[in-house]
Batch of 2 targets.
Target 1
Amino acid sequence: MTRFRLNRRNVLKGAGAGLVALSTPTIFTRGAWAQEFCNDPSKGKIIFGFNVPQTGSYAEEGLDELKGYELAVKHINGEGDGGMLKTLKPLALKGNGVLGRKVEYVTGDTQTNTDAARDGARRMIERDGAIMVTGSVTSGEAIAQQALCQEMGVIYMAGLTHSNDTTGKDKRRYGFRHFFNAYQSGVAIAPVLAKEYGTDRRAYHLTADYTWGWTQEESIKNATEALGWETVATVRTPLGLGDYSQYLTPVLNSGADVLILNHYGHDMVNSLPQAVQFGLRDRQANGKNFEIVVPMFSELMAVGAGEAVKGIIGTSNWQWSLEDEGTKAFTKSYGEAYGVPPSQAAHTGYVQTLLYADAVERAGTFYPPEVIKALEGFEFDGAGNGPTLYRDTDHQCFKEVLVVRGNENPTNRFDVLNVIGATSREEVTYDPSIFGGELGPYEPNKC
Amino acid sequence: MLSLSRKDLVSLVVFAAVVLTMPIWLSPFGAAYPGLMQKFAIYAIFAIGFNILFGLTGYLSFGHAAFLGVGSYTTVWSFKLLTMDILPAMVFAVIVAGVFALVIGYFSLRRTGIYFSILTLAFAQMSYSLAYSVLTPITNGETGLLLARGDPRYVDQIFGAQMNLAGLPQPTLIGNALGGYGGFYLCAVLLILCFYVSQKIFASPFGLALRGIKSNQTRMNYTGFNTKPYTLAAFVISGMFAGLAGALLSITDPLAGAERMKWTESGNVVLMTILGGVGTLFGPVVGAWLIKYFENIFSAINTNMLNSFLSFLPDGVQSFFVTVLSKFVGEGWHLTLGLLFVLIVVFLPGGIVEGVQRLVARFRGGGQRGKATSPQPAE
Amino acid sequence: MNAFLAQLLNGLDKGGAYALIALGLTLVFGTLGVVNFAHGALFMLGCFCAVTFRYLITIETVTIDPEKLSPWGTPLEVRTPLVQNWFGDFGAVLVDYSVPISLLLAVPAMLAIGIAIERGLIKHFYKRSHAEQILVTFGLAIVLQEIVKSFFGANPVPQPIPTDLRGAADIGAWLGMEVHALTYPWWRLVYLAFSLLVIGGVFAFLQFTTFGMVVRAGMADRETVGLMGIDIDRRFTIVFGLAAVVAGVAGVMYTPLLPPNYHLGMDFLVLSFVVVVVGGMGSLPGAVVAGFLLGILQSFASMTEVKSLIPGIDQVIIYLVAVVILLVRPRGLMGRRGVMES
């Protein structure tokens, strides 16, 4: 009811004083008290905001991410079997909520649209009182929400976002990314490509024509050219094109012997099977077998591509069939809860939520600057990716990057990708200054 | 010049009261927070502008989102290059959107009916595709155009405003930061202003001419009346409304993304207008609010909320209702929206406002008088 | 030269698909006078006829083996496909050829769906404004796709090409060029032939049957046909059903090229409208010509040589062509005066 009264006061002020009053109501919302911050849970509930696409083309990944979030809240609150709470090290969470109080959550639908994503995040912050917002399936959503959350003074834990910009050009003090990025994909995949296909190859790139595609094309091109590969051509394809035939026929007699598809999601689901149908993989070029590479894999999308994915090499943030303790614990709790193994979307969402909760527990407060400092430079293990560092200079996680290959003989319908290698954390670590950007201040705005 | 008929004046006062008291009457619906109320006001402006074209002239534009996007981009560029003050940003946005509308309208209005619709759609889709890809240096593509601390802001530099900031600069109105509720009242005042302008246009000889064009363009032409300048003027005005709406989107939330120009956005404003009632004054506003409400509130309801909401029921009944209802909220909110479209258009012909007026008229007439006596605001 | 021929084939293939989708839409426009925003959804439903058929014939008996656990910790499921059990080799062929065979399911299913939609909803909207037709059909499209989503999820469901039709045909070798100089996937050739067949079939049906004659007369002048005492309403129902069938079979055969998801219809909706309008309202041949024209131009616009001249041309080519054609020819390629012009 306090909220209601506050609003009415605003209305009376606003209506009464006319134009001058336009800025007056902000007195109530932008107080100048020290240690006051947006949605301080000490005055109410602890609310996490889970904002993922639930409708539109990426709904499946979004809904799977949401399941990861819901599971994380259960485990933080001490329900279920605890999952990664048993394997994460170091860990301050005790399985009794955060700072001794239970966590609740609200959900939203981003529709894979930046405006809808920001609307959802604002609702969570302004109406529902969320202290942390998380979730995304594309970089556009992630960057848009992270910029908003910086303005509102609420921490944003990114979901699926693979563009270099998220923790590069557009990084924010209040935004954190557990997922890997295009640069790391390039560095990680290169040694495996050299081993599998040799160092004397001619590559043809088909690239989705928008920022993510460009950054990935550049990263992969640099990494493969360093191996000694030659780049025959880089061709841009419109986003969301259904039929790629007009871009595939020129590949056939271009003199290339590797096709690199810098496509994600539905672009990949369509272009990869079509490339296989054009007989690319049945061919010989320059005396070698023609190969197709998809640098960034998502297993849900790999399922969508069907048989075409068999034998194709790419990278992945995480895979449920890994053998470490963290993965096994998470896969087991997720499998018991939902009957299927988790995707990397569910994994990154789950881990991000635990990491945030744990940082609050370690900081002993929800005050965002302290939580941010607890996350910056945090070194942990047992989350499924080996020893991992949340780097302070750009809020990017550094960990092993997996190289995967489409399974030739799947034993069940979820066994789509095989892990064929992992590139060490040292190798995928880079100098943060190469991408520029600026994190911004610690001090929170009063939303 | 500025006067209104008595009936219009009453409408305006009622409308202003409804808009300004949104924070009160929306709170039982869970929608009384600045983010959504701003969107209510902004999309109402967008729809009112669209209705000036579609409602009065009958020309169905399927590319109005292009003007929304152009307004947004102009605003953010004005923030980046000139000043964080919103007044120049709004003026520029309206002008640039108007010029854009003039060019597109000049070509599109050479055709009528569905040919016109497809022309506007094609122009808007071209703008969208290019903004997403080739024009990335101007639009920042997928990520959307964002403010940066290092932006030049030449005018602000001269006056020394917004200097030495720790974080990003905030949009201001003559030096005052806006904030959540400030942003809402700004949008609300502009919405009332736009409503007033739309009333004036509806009641003016210009509006009458536009309606003449709608009912029979050929006849208008035969009487020696040159309809071209009229339709073009209506097109440009409604483009400027869209530009203003786009500017407000970027003022309340400084970001401009290419998705704002996609055909789904254009389709949205068409649906809003038809849903509320084409050619009525209130209709587009009601339609915009309804669609935005579903998009933001229904989509956010999850099974947890349903469970606690229905906790008064016995266990078995509760879980039954939760299972059924969860199909219609959260990830299923599209289903509810689709059903709503179908039901409204079946049971309330002419959209919500007109449909309700007809129902009321029928009740008053004791159910004996048919459609003939019901009010037909558009015609 | 090879590159040119390959792009021509691509264009024809795309054009076939565009023409098929546009054909049903323009039929509904021309005869019923209804702006059908649910047409994309009908195409999507066609795709999911193939998905459903494959789902049905690959139903497996699932027995749970309590002894063993799956890697993610639930009891292991042992699956045996029923069809193979019952029919042996024939069952295997059935599964292999599921996409073309599912046409047998799609035709009656889409006809029934089309008739149900027309009788249940569309027929009440013949006399309503186009705006209301848009709203109701758009609402219907959303409802249809949400129903599909609740059954099949939001992820694309890939459909395989029959084994015999996989791989690419060496067209170059037939024409006396070198081996591999010009190859083209068999299934795309099948699709092209299929689309020509269906287009030809629809035209023959309208040209050579009494029913078709009445429909064509109805397209030309509905009122007079009604005045002549012909029950045009019943025929409209069948026309709508026919449009649904054409959209549906276009979808079925497209599934191996484009793994369908519930949202697919919306992606094709705008395109199909552009094709119909460029072809000209109320003209069936116009829609077909426009489909092939746009398909071929889209293919050529994506060639590197063209793109280097005009950057981004492949992004906008369809809309650019639409604008140019509509500005040069007031009613599209073959449109008739007075249809959907007010």
Note: Residues 2-60+96-328 of chain C form one domain.
Target 2
Amino acid sequence: MFSFSPDRSQYPQPGPDGKVEVDLETGKYLKLWHGPNHPGITGNMSVELTVCGDEVVEGKTHVGYLHRGFEKLMERRTFIQVFPIVCRVCVPEPDFNEYCYAAAVEELAGIEVPEMATWIRTLILEMGRFNSYMMAMGGISGALGLGVVGQWMTYTRDLMLDRFEELTGARIYHMFILPGGVRAHLPEGFEGRMEEVLSTAERYLADAEKLMFHSSVFKTRTQGVGYIDPALFERYGVTGPNARAGGVAKDVRKDSPYLVYDQLDFTVHTEEASDIYARTMVRFKDLHETIQLIRQILKKMPKEGPVMGNLPNVLHWKIPRGETYIKGESSRGEYGYYLVTDGTGYPRRINVRGPSYTHAMALLEHLISGTNISDVAALMVSLHTYPPEIER
Amino acid sequence: MSLRDVLSPFTAWKHVINDPVTIKDPFSREASDRYRGFHQNDMDKCIGCGSCEEICQNAAIDMVPVEGQNAGPGDSGLRPMIDYGRCCWCALCVDVCMTGSLTMSNEYTWVDSDPDAFRFVPGVDAKSWDLEPKGYQREDERRLTGTVRAPMGETCPEDRIGNFDEIVDGFTAEQAIIEADRCVECGLCVATCPAHMDIPDYISKVRDGDYEGGLQLLYETNPFSQACGRICTHKCETTCAAMHEGDAIAIRWLKRSITDSVPRERYFDLIQKPDVPETGQSVAIIGAGPAGLTTAYDLARKGHQVVVFEALDKPGGMMRYGIPEYRLPYHVLDHEISVIESMGVEIRCNMRVGQEISMDQLKTAYDAVVLSIGLHQGRSTRVPGSEKAEAAIDLLRRITAGEEVPVPEQVAVIGGGNVAMDIARSMARLQKIKHGKVGVTVTALEELDRFLADKEEIEEALEEGCDIFPARGPQEILVDGDTVTGLRTWKVDAIFDAEGRFAPKYDEDDEMVHPAGMVVEAIGQMADISLLGAELTEQLEWNRGRIMIDADGQTSEPWLWAAGDAVSGPDVIHAVADGHRVAVSISRMLTAKREALQ
């Protein structure tokens, strides 16, 4: 006969070394798979939970569902042929891959990028950040049962995808930032249509703010939950909004400006609590910052000029021996490409540093112990990780 | 937790009267103007160069033969077939397209239950979006391959007119690499080159700086690579994929850059006779021009004994006695021929067949005979006074041989081909040396843009001070006693009649007299066939004044082959191709003969 005792004070019991001994034979524990098919944000990745009642004793992260061997594929392609692949490393914010790869190639091949192209690149990156944050906001609210915010955010993101489509010719994999520049100028009337999207987004964000940051349910579910001790940031390689929510005002755009960020005004927002609420709040403020950055870029950018520098014949493009690391501030933290060339027509090695790699594996395993099952989804989403960039 | 935190979420209810935001009908939505949808290919522009296939990182493109598209000069006849199961819509194929024929429509929805339907040839397999103007196109300024030819230095007109020094500098190593980098290795040039030289591969050797490897590649198909690097008619460049949206690759100059970059003495190490046994069979070749010497080079490398009979003082044929030194310096030609001689080829100069030795003697003493006598007799206009005219080809030969030629202050040239330019520019140089000024008039039937001469030749002639009168037909060479005084011409209204036959029509009212102390006819050449003798001439089959040959270059006589200008018209690279063809045929015959004896 089924019996249930709410008293779990006697287990799990730590052993002499402080670790919990999990013996499934005792019947006190249950293995529970969280994923791999989890709708929405956390993507194809799973966490193998060991639960005791509804409390998580430990969690093991399992990745590999999305492994397509991109870094290896890139070594088998010429420098121009790598260009269509890189965006696929990260689905929701592909443009960082395009930018980092292009910038790395340009540095090693000594190619100059026209000014106009650097402005358009910055615009593209901020548009990508907008989309990515929209997904994060939708994700976190969805994970906490606030489905309607998820719908609004997805809709607003869709409007931005329309702008991506008219600018780049594609909605998801833009393949727009070519080594040497970008593929095209802004279409006519783009600024006006972009402004419509931005003001619509602001309206929905104002509503979302009431449903999230002024909601007692949301606050209860997120404040004090998923706390990351700032002392762990360095050890676990925590960057971006996850670190800024713990009071670390680090942002690659400010600390080592690339593209035209040194010509733009923006604030790096921080919070102190380092919990799910703080992380969501940092993203929310950053999203507003991104909206004003897009406006600023469209206002400040030159109105004409070439968008493409001189490339050698790409069909037999060889790049001299060298290595470089190009980094930028993505919506999840520091994103980087390490490129090694050996004088041939193929990259010797490309390594992608996706922030999800550090956030979604070791850090998540560390944070997950002791949480409630119902908080696991919110915790994962609050770290804002994209599995494809873990498995390059 | 404040009361506000409890109440504010209810504000979402204000949206209850709004339409749902997440439903969109994808089938009625038009994609953006530059959307990357299904491909379109303009069949009038596509040349089948395959650059799209080359750049595709998914191997989604295959170049396939299609009905109605035939291979021809500058067109492979192949067209890209795209497999949409592999295509990732990156549009690099559109970006790299050499002619701008490949674009993408903004059509992206298509449902079909047959998976094979998604593999088709755009532009050939008709689709509803074929004429859709919207979709992705490459912006004009953006190219993935270079479009501008590397500059070539040459001596300025003032410095070159007083001498016969070579005028084209040749590429520096840096220029050569920049130029070689533009090649997309489509190979359309290989099909066009009469000798089918391995152009993309030797260009890639230039790119890699491997000039010695490049030289070996050149000699696999052309023992006159040094000459062709300077004076080839470069038909390859007229079919280059790069010419459609930029300058054609300077294939000829790149060839020269290889031959000039390898030290002379290294040629003999790099181009060695293969280790083949001597066959004991021998071949006589009449005429040491490019066709004869190419045949000799090939046959000697196969182990046959080869003797070349040359009527003139030095070997080289028309390359030496027709082409002026400022285009092809003699020391380059001498070196080229010495490489051929190093294969064991024996060249006997001043041996005019028909005088020093007869055709019959050759037929008896050798297993095969090759006739490569060139076109050394000038044609005449046969206008009144033309018996007093000089033949350009004669004059050029005499200038090369160092003979004294009369150099009047004013010379008129009849003809608009390369030979006309050669003699005009040679006479201009002699005038400059003798009189300190140039006085050359060139008249031709054609309009300037239809001249048979290369564009550069015309431009350089003008730069050097020659006057060119296009569309002028010669009527009379004016003579005062024994002295030529000028050329009388009429304006040409039409050169050909309605059936396309040569029948020039003149405007008699538009007459000009070009004063000249010498009139040179440069309207074409013919072969001097007197060496054959009456009996052989009778036995051979002829085709409109030329010896008839089969596809292997063999005449109607089983022991006699013919090659070069005399059968293919004036062109060095054609002569080289002829030489190879004849050598293969002779070698096959000799092998069969040897095997029959064993």
Note: The first helix of chain A runs from residue 70 to 75.
